[in-house]
């Protein structure tokens, strides 16, 4: 009985870890690295330059890439419309989902090959560059984006549960 209780406690702890630990999306175009991860749980990275392009780790164990197999054609079923809710419920859902994401870092630079547009953007940047956001323009035809977004799964689940139970 104690072993079963210990196993259930371990599973409950794991579920709580997954729900309350933030998920990160990291985009770095200068180094060609794109990552989607949750610390201690999973790590999915993509690099268009390196081989293999995708690297997947689940609980610290690297999962090897498999060969793609042919997929059977899927028959489309007649689907009923999604949940019929009021407009205010849908707005609540969208706002709640957007609030669960937080920009931790956004650094970007671009050259738009238009001197007039670059000068107009240069006047707007001081208003946009607040906190984690740092945008600039350059004149040497380079593009760069460094982005870190934190997503909270617990806030998403709470919003979705309220959306489903609210009339």
Please tally the β strands and state the result.
8
Based on CA inertia axes, which overall geometry fits? extended
Rg: 22 Å
How many helices? The count is 4
Which sheet architecture does the biggest sheet show? Answer: 8 strands, mixed
Reading the helices and strands in chain order gives HEEEEEHEHEEH
Q: Helical amount among residues, as a percent range?
A: 25-40%
Low-confidence stretches: none
Alpha-beta classification: alpha+beta
- The side-by-side strand order for the widest beta sheet comes to 5-4-3-2-1-8-6-7
Rounded mean pLDDT score: 85
Termini Cα gap: 42 Å
Oligomeric state of the chains? Answer: single chain
Strand content: 25-35%
How would you sum up this structure, described in words?
With 167 residues, this protein is an alpha+beta fold. Helix content is 35%, strand content 29%. The protein contains four helices and eight strands. An eight-stranded mixed sheet has the order 5-4-3-2-1-8-6-7. The longest helix has 19 residues, at 2-20. The radius of gyration is 22 Å and the shape is extended. The two termini are 42 Å apart.
Summarize the structure.
This protein is 35% helix and 29% strand. It has helices at 2-20, 87-99, 115-128, 153-165, and strands spanning 23-28, 33-38, 42-46, 54-58, 61-63, 101-110, 133-137, 144-151.
């Amino acid at each position: 009985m104690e072993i079963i209780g210990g196993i259930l406690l371990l599973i409950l702890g794991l579920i709580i870890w997954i729900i309350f630990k933030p998920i990160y999306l990291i985009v770095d175009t200068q180094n060609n690295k794109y990552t989607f991860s949750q610390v201690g749980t999973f790590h999915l990275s993509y690099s268009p330059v390196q081989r293999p392009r995708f690297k997947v780790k689940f609980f610290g164990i690297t999962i090897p890439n498999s060969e793609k197999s042919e997929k059977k054609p899927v028959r489309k079923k007649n689907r009923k419309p999604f949940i019929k809710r009021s407009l205010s419920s849908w707005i609540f859902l969208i706002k709640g989902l957007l609030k669960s994401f937080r920009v931790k870092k956004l650094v970007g630079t671009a050259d738009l090959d238009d001197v007039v547009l670059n000068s107009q953007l240069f006047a707007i940047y001081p208003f946009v560059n607040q906190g984690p956001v740092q945008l600039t323009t350059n004149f040497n035809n380079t593009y760069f984006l460094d982005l870190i977004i934190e997503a909270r799964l617990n806030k998403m689940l709470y919003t979705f549960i309220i959306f489903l139970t609210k009339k």
